[in-house]
Amino acid sequence: MPTTTIADREVTVDEEGFMTVYDEWDEDLGAALASQIGIEMTEDHWRAVKFLREDFAAEGATPTIRRVSTVGGIPTKELFMLFPKKPAKKMAYVAGLPKPAGCV
Amino acid sequence: MTTTEAAPAIVPDFGDEAEDRKICFICSKGNLDMAYPALIMANGALTEGVEVDIFFTFWGMDMINKGTWDKLQFSMLGNTAMHMPGSTKHIPQGLGGLPGMTGYATKMLKKQIADLDVPEVPEFLQMLHDMGARLWACKMSVDMMGLTEDDMFEGVEAVINVNEFVELSDGAQVIFV
Fold this sequence. Notes:
heterodimer; A: mainly alpha; B: alpha/beta
């Protein structure tokens, strides 16, 4: 696995740049990841990212958009506003998790 | 003194600068198993930032008709690939014609879909609508079936004819189901 330097820290990532080690992530890193892709984190962004982290820890898989909306309680429309165009992948990236594997 | 140059960070390409891609789906079937392919692909397309239009025509109208959209059925008849879940042994076609078999097969399929946390058709359409998909009803089908806009899901943009569909699908990839 390659490593890359984000916010002066060395982190393990896959070929695309998604972090691969759950515990290497913290909120400072999350904010740095977000700014790399042009997102400035707000309270609402953190709510989504924190749900992703918690759900991944509990279920062992990155939640899909539908799960973030039905279980995490954040409406789909809002997710598209917070993480434009590709919310599922962008949220996963900021949360330091792999891309969601589910189809729906 | 030596300086080391930091390697550029590896950042995924989310295609934000890419040209807008567009996919149009045509839903022409009202069987439960034929309703899902376009819905699932449309969902995938929307989460990839692709613009999505869905045109409902003929039996596909049952997917947006509020009188039928929660009653779509699945029949074993005519489906020679039909076998019990977890088995490769085909079920004889004749069994599909027995009374109650369509209801049973429908129930089984719905359960398998729900087990994957995939929503039923009405909720799925609402979800796609919330994600920005534009839904269109076919004028000829509406006339033929004597439907009005009141019969249809509120998320449907408009009833359009085929010329309008050809216009709006200009430059799009078109998938017929």
